[in-house]
Amino acid sequence: MAAIPAPARALSGAAFGTLLLIALMMGANHVAARIAFNNGVDVATAVVFRSTITTFVVVALLASQGVRVRFSARHRKMLPAIGLLVGVQSLCLYSAVARLPVALALLAFNTYPIWTAFWSAVVYRKHAEKATLVAMPVILVGLALALDVFGAASGLGASGQWAQIGAGVAFALAAAATFGLALVLTQHEAGDVDGRVRTASTMAIAALVALTTVTLQGGFHLPTAPAGWGGLAALTFLYGTAFTIMFTVLPRLGVVGNSAIMNVEPVFALVLAWLILGQSIAPIQVAGALLVVGTVMALGLRKK
User: Fold this and answer.
1) C-beta separation of 22 from 262 below 8 A
2) How many alpha carbons lie under 13 Å from residue 253 in its C-beta half-sphere?
3) 3-state SS of 121-137?
4) Global confidence as pTM
5) Taking Cα atoms as reference points, which of 304, 302, 300 lies closest to residue 260?
6) For the chain, how many helices (H) and strands (E)?
7) CA–CA gap between residue 202 and residue 182 (Å, rounded)
8) Which of 77, 143, 164, 221 is deepest in the core (most CB within 10 A)?
9) What is the pLDDT of residue 303?
10) What superkingdom does the record give (predicted)?
11) Contact in structure between 101 and 161 (CB atoms under 8 Å)
12) Cβ of 54: how many Cβ atoms within 10 Å?
């Protein structure tokens, strides 16, 4: 989900509740995706459905609100690049969700602030803030605990644990890296584009990326059981609705873009995955998850 730093002023109760609702819906979206993946749907098919429907919803909003679409030469150059990155990020994140417990996939993805700082330094020579540098090792320690990198909680040992989680973690980190670059490019090259227009463009290109992947793999992989259709419908509805709320309700509540509060998404996913999928992790992994989420939220909510 593309993010722009939230304003420093305090949030109203309604805004805070709406942000939590969006985080809940995004966490539920990934749980629904796992249900779809367990019942015949592949990653590219899920991204095509999700991104295409969301594009139509946002375009309908633009039309109903009479938003004028104007792009500069720079926008016409950079928006496709941002959309391509988000398309790759979507495929990678769902690939991680298909291979890891949902909450752990989202936690590994939540390292994207580190990648944002990295890409800012590489692309724009912007040095990371002190708070970010302090947060980086804390996030990595929390992630190491959550993923049980030494296999202590699982009893598998380091090699056995990485044989199970290695591919999923690689996909989640690739998603974080591409998302971090997309955020940096958005901030520097497309921050002045209307958020609804930018989202419509990004989702449309992400859908094309996924559709190309579907074509290369020989066609859509549709659900093989009713639960799969339910999961596919739910992930599409939850994702599209969360975006609709973000761009219709939040601006009226005085919230611009995403807030760090929505980084509580992995916690919601952890609870939902336990209740619905029966996925559970060891207490030390829960502690690591809370450390990651708390650090990322503190980083996002700090006064600048």
Assistant:
1) yes
2) 21
3) HHHHCCCCCHHHHHHHH
4) 0.90
5) 300
6) 11, 0
7) 10
8) 143
9) 62
10) Bacteria
11) no
12) 24
